[in-house]
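Quick review question:
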């Protein structure tokens, strides 16, 4: 019954450091722009984000690096080091900002023998 905003920093199972306000980022992280390594994704800014000491437990990781595309300003890669020292890396490829999803994009295939019905709310 607990209500959480899974996209808000410090509340979701994996804190998403993008799509947040500058104030929220600055509340949770010390952020520095760093030079890109030779193997960095092309045309990106690189942000090193260190959780503030009083936010480490909420975020559950000790360091984060985010590569942000210089044209779209969307993240193309994120690498985090968890508080247990495990490293998680996520890469976003073929980002299409012109695609408009339809309702069909959000329908899951039904297993055999299942039916679908839609009823309006009263």
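Suggested answer, residue by residue:
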């Amino acid at each position: 019954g607990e209500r959480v905003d899974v996209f808000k920093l410090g509340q979701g199972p994996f804190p998403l450091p993008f799509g947040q306000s500058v104030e929220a980022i600055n509340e949770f992280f010390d952020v520095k722009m760093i030079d890109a390594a030779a193997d960095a994704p092309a045309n990106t800014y690189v942000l090193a984000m260190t959780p503030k000491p009083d936010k480490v437990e909420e975020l559950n990781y000790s360091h984060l690096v985010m590569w942000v595309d210089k044209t779209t300003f969307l993240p193309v890669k994120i690498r985090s080091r968890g508080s247990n020292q495990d490293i998680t890396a996520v890469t976003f490829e073929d980002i299409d900002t012109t695609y408009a999803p339809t309702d069909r994009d959000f329908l899951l295939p039904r297993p055999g023998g299942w039916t679908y019905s839609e009823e309006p709310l009263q």
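Why it works: The chain is about 10% helix and 30% strand. The helical segments are 22-28, 56-59.
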